[in-house]
Amino acid sequence: MTGSDQYFGGLVSHAPLVTLSKRSHFHGCTLGIAPLMPRALCDRPALHLLTLAWGIATAEEAASLAAEIDAFAVRWPKARFLIFANTADEAVLCRAAGLAVIQFNQLNLVDETRFTPVDGVEKTVGCRLRRWAGSLQAP
Fold this sequence. Notes:
Blueprint: E1 9-14, E2 17-23, E3 46-52, H1 59-75, E4 79-85, H2 88-96, E5 101-103, H3 125-134
């Protein structure tokens, strides 16, 4: 898929407002679909779950993402982002830049009816996400 009019994500919940989308420089959606939310929703708390289409490989890239989120917060002060890092190294870089992050590889969202998980591998990501969301505090 190509083109600046294509975004990857959707609305997970309307109340509370939760989105899940992908950061993609190529498509011009560096904060996923969060900037596309109607202005009328900007006073509501929102959680934007953001996966990474391309990895965060340097501290500068993580700092750039943090700066974009800070700039977004001026317009949407109640918005929060949780970055889904594909690797432990990405998580370390994002955390060092002050971002809320968990290691959550995009392949965790693969349909298990088509791709069978490996025997003996426990699914712990959902538990970690619930613990993090439960500790989310508005400023």
